[in-house]
């Protein structure tokens, strides 16, 4: 009987939750054939926090400074670990773990290296592109988590092309999401929202890149024409005070609700009548998919990572950073009948089922690993 294929999955910092896509990759690798180790460069779970479902988890406990510059101590520790364990596959998520793996692979010649890129812009710097071209070997496969990310990678002149770079769309467990979602009335009760108003909803950290300032400014225009409308934002972050001040300055304290962080925020999406994603930059935000899972009409900015998804699902686009045009779209949605909005939400849900189902996600990663190991195991 052949031994199990040994897989190491590297992440920059500890972050394990029910919708974590690194955990979904593990679920796609059958335990009869694969032994998966999860490694976190920074952080570890606190008391009561979840651990990875991998066979084992490693927490290296590096600080931010350990992972800057030449990172010799971190690289040496990783080198010894990978050499001793003789992993067949190493999957590195995001730029820093992927870059470290590229450097180590020169000496280790790991049978299969997979780099998962979640966003756009990591290879904008000329030095990063040059380094990637020097380090990228034929045992590498690169994953872009959306069409926009894949296209960025292939077009950035960092050595990525159609032979080594694939698109595997980020996904959510739609069946689980729908099981968790509370009925509209109960979801509103849990969030402290009134039952009657039309509620625009958003989910995301309260940080500048999420564009909440523009969303609140747009809603101020909507509220002037539709005084019963409300806006609810689930998320927490360093911009809370700034956003609270903006809400007060615009006289919206009775209509805009900053609801804070909520575990498994997708369980509340049916409290909303429409979902808004005003981001200035994103990879592929899972929150947008969670909004679709609630059968909601979706509105989003025209940034590269959102535009193709919103076009394909029949959603609504506005120019990023333009609250006046976002307000017009929101008012257009309010002017529609409930049946028209329900039909729009049904179209977004149907697209979600076609393009972002978790079972397809798991199958694609399993195929990528199986094919890659079959082609590259000769290097071990």
UniProtKB/TrEMBL annotation:
GO molecular-function terms, A-Z: glycosyltransferase activity
GO biological process, one term: carbohydrate derivative metabolic process
InterPro entries: Glyco_trans_1, Glyco_trans_4-like_N
UniProt domain Glycosyl transferase family: residue ranges: 192-340
Keywords annotated in UniProt: Transferase
Domain Glycosyltransferase subfamily 4-like N-terminal: 23-176
PANTHER family attached to this UniProt entry: GLYCOSYLTRANSFERASE, GLYCOSYLTRANSFERASE EPSF-RELATED
Protein name (record): Glycosyltransferase involved in cell wall bisynthesis
Biological source species: Pseudomonas sihuiensis
């Amino acid at each position: 009987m052949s031994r199990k294929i040994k897989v190491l999955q590297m992440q920059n910092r500890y972050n394990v939750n029910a919708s974590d896509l690194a955990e979904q990759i593990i679920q796609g690798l059958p335990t009869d054939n694969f032994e998966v180790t999860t490694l976190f460069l920074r952080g570890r779970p606190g008391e009561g926090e979840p651990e990875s479902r991998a066979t084992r988890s490693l927490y290296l406990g590096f600080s931010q400074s350990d992972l800057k510059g030449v990172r010799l101590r971190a690289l040496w520790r990783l080198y010894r670990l990978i050499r001793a364990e003789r992993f067949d596959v190493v999957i590195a998520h995001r730029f820093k773990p992927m870059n470290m793996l590229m450097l180590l692979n020169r000496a280790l010649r790991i049978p299969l290296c997979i780099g998962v890129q979640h966003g756009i812009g990591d290879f904008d710097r000329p030095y990063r592109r040059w380094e990637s071209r020097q380090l990228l070997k034929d045992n590498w496969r690169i994953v872009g988590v959306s069409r926009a990310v894949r296209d960025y990678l292939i077009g950035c002149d960092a050595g990525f092309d159609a032979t080594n770079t694939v698109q595997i769309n980020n996904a959510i467990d739609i069946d689980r999401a729908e099981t968790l979602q509370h009925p509209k009335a109960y979801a509103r009760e849990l969030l402290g929202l009134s039952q009657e108003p039309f509620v625009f909803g958003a989910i995301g950290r309260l940080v500048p890149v999420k564009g909440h300032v523009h969303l609140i400014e747009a809603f101020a225009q909507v509220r002037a024409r539709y005084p019963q409308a409300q806006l609810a934002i689930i998320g927490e972050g360093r911009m809370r005070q700034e956003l609270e001040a903006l809400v007060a300055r615009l006289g919206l304290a009775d209509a805009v609700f900053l609801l804070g962080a909520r575990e498994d925020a997708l369980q509340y999406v049916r409290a909303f009548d429409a979902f808004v994603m005003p981001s200035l930059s994103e990879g592929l935000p899972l929150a947008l998919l969670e909004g679709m899972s609630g059968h909601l009409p979706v509105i989003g900015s025209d940034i590269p990572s959102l535009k193709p998804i919103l076009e394909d699902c029949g959603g609504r686009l506005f120019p990023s950073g333009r609250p006046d045009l976002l307000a017009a779209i929101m008012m257009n949605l309010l002017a529609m009948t409930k049946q028209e909005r329900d039909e729009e939400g049904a179209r977004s849900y149907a697209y979600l089922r076609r393009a972002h189902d978790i079972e397809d996600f798991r199958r694609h990663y399993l195929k990528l690993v199986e094919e890659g190991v079959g082609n590259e195991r000769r290097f071990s």
